[in-house]
Amino acid sequence: MKLIRTLIHWSISLLIAATLSLLITTFLIEPAEVNGQSMQPTLQDNNYILISKLPNTFDQVPDYGDIVVIDSVINRDRSLMREFQEASLYRMVTGQEKAHNRWLKRVIGRPGDTLEFKDNIVYRNGQLLKEPYLKDATTPPPSDEDMHKLTVPEGHVFVMGDNRHNSQDSRAIGPIPIDHVLGKMIFQMEGWPLG
Question: Whose CA is closest to 104, among 131, 71, 75, 145?
């Protein structure tokens, strides 16, 4: 009888711990792994970072220069179930592969901003955008020739990778709805094999 009570106690404790962990990684903070070269030189492939989920939880518009995780499938509605299913802990426990729709990019434009692309330089609201974080400012982005000027719609942000020559971003998929901004990078970790 004592063994059964102990097993029940441990089972309840584990269930509570797992539920709290899932809630934390879904709505508060989550470790993530950088995949690809689109954010070089700022972040390298296989770096580990911490993502604050609070901006997404409270529908906050990220600031200029924030490095954010986005859901690149912008024509599909976000739901609470998708938030849980894409959390790293849920994917790890269920054995799912990494979510390929989650991209790490830098916020270049906020709602109402007018962005112009001239001679491989970005202008925001008529002002030259200084971007010391770019990998190679002399390499032309792949699609700037099609896109010379745009206004970021309300409820959206415009994001780009720091490695402009090797980045799928808003130049390809358009401005990102705020509810598709899943979190903001707050810390880069060295040597943490999580994600």
Answer: 71
